[in-house]
Design brief:
Layout lengths: L1 H24 L4 H40 L1
């Protein structure tokens, strides 16, 4: 039982030390990181929308061609 308590104490202490070091050594603040993530998501969304619009235009052109043949 004593070994389990020591293990859990060490685990909790190690987690606290690790979290503290991660916060102190992080290259950016949370706000900056969230801004960067937001920009990347917006960029990906714009790229997906652009690709979808291009594909839609291709399919509409193909559909129009098929309708003319029938």
């Amino acid at each position: 039982m004593k070994g389990v308590i020591n293990f859990l104490s060490g685990l909790i202490l190690g987690g606290l030390v690790g979290a503290t070091l991660a916060i102190l050594l992080a290259p950016e603040s949370g706000e900056e990181l969230r801004g960067e993530i937001r920009e990347r998501v917006e960029s990906i969304q714009a790229e997906v929308n652009r690709a979808a619009n291009e594909r839609r235009a291709e399919l509409e052109k193909e559909l129009a061609g098929l309708r003319r043949t029938y």
